[in-house]
Target: Thioesterase superfamily protein
Amino acid sequence: MSVDDRPLASFRVSMRDIDIYGHVHNSVYLDYCEDAAVEFLRHREILSHFRHTSSGVAYHVKKAEITFHNPIDVDDVVEAKVTVEKIGRTSLSFAIELFRQRDGAHCASAGFVWVCVGLSDSRPTPIPDATRAALG
Model:
């Protein structure tokens, strides 16, 4: 497994994440994906670019999309892989893949679009050059 193929983040499923059918509730997958995206930024040592207090801008989720492939159960360890799919003028797109550690099953594919906005008006604003360079 190459460095780029290794999971970036992993999570152990808690009982609070389980629905009445005994597997992770659909909405919780988005929490896992958002946590994975933040871990991706932390791993790249660029999380400060996404904190409004240090960057002068904020990022809002414009779109979140998920496709479910296999269920995840209590106490499973979920591994996440994150990539930046696209960096636009005011937005960026992440792709997140979730896998069950015990058997490697591909459990979900997700995508997020974050829009960079100004702090004073919450209107789209260009992604700062330093952030763009750090992501590239």
Summary: The longest strand covers residues 106-118. The chain has a mean pLDDT of 92.
